[in-house]
Amino acid sequence: MKRLTILAVAVTTLAITPVGSAHANTTTIQVKGGEFYFKLSTKTIAKPGKVTFVFKNVGHVIHDFKIAGKTTRLIPPGTTTRLLVTFKKKGHYPYSCTVLGHAAAGMRGVFTVR
Fold first, then answer.
1. Residue 26 lies in a domain
2. Is residue 72 part of a domain?
3. How many CA atoms lie within 13 A of 69 on its CB side?
4. Strands 49-57 and 66-67
5. SS3 category, 4
6. Which of 28, 64, 76, 86 sits between 20 and 30 A of 111, alpha carbons compared?
7. Is residue 4 part of a domain?
8. 55-110: per-residue pLDDT in tens?
9. Which CATH number do you get for residue 34?
10. 89 lies in some domain
């Protein structure tokens, strides 16, 4: 009986949650990372807000992506992960790979919020 009640609550919650509302005001930016670079689909957004960085490791070793105090997990070659960041104010936000030596080798840059 307890499982049935939990299922009923879950179904009711899903039924009243608008589809797509969680990410309705989110900008998505594609990020490719390899040895030893990042390529972002854009390095600038027009105003503060939520950004989902979709990071794909196109290299041959593990990498991650760090920006605004948030970091993805280390991901193996050929895999993709997401990082949701809320930028609350305008500014320049450095990004990098935290694997030892990767930022120094070129895996770094600056993202701008206008």
1. yes
2. yes
3. 3
4. unpaired
5. helix
6. 76
7. no
8. 999 999 999 999 999 999 999 999 999 999 999 999 999 999 999 999 999 999 99
9. 2.60.40.420
10. yes
Residue 63 structural domain: 22-113
The encoded tokens of residue 38 equal 């990042």
Does residue 22 contact residue 16 with C-beta atoms inside 8 Å?
no
Enter the tokens of residue 26.
Answer: 């989110």
Structure tokens at 17: 């949650």
Rg of the chain over Cα atoms, rounded to whole angstroms, equals 18
Which pTM does this prediction carry? 0.79
| 66 CB burial (10 A radius; 0-12, 13-18, 19+) | middle
Q: How many independent structural domains does the chain possess? A: 1
Residue 91 C-alpha from the chain's centroid: 18
Distance CA 29, CA 27 (A): 7
3-state secondary structure of 27: strand
Q: Are residues 65 and 51 in contact, defined by beta-carbon separation less than 8 angstroms? A: no
Are the beta carbons of 24 and 42 closer than 8 angstroms?
no
